[in-house]
Amino acid sequence: MEYRYGSHTVFNIEYHFVWVTKYRYKVLKGEIAHRVKELVRQSCEAF
Question: Does the pTM of the predicted model rise above 0.85?
């Protein structure tokens, strides 16, 4: 694990998720939302 250093911080960022759709339509809902949540949790548990 490599830590990065700023002037007043120490951090290790592995992932950065950004979901922005045109006009901010809610596309992550229903079964898709549950599946994405499951995949993110599995990734977090693996690390």
Answer: no
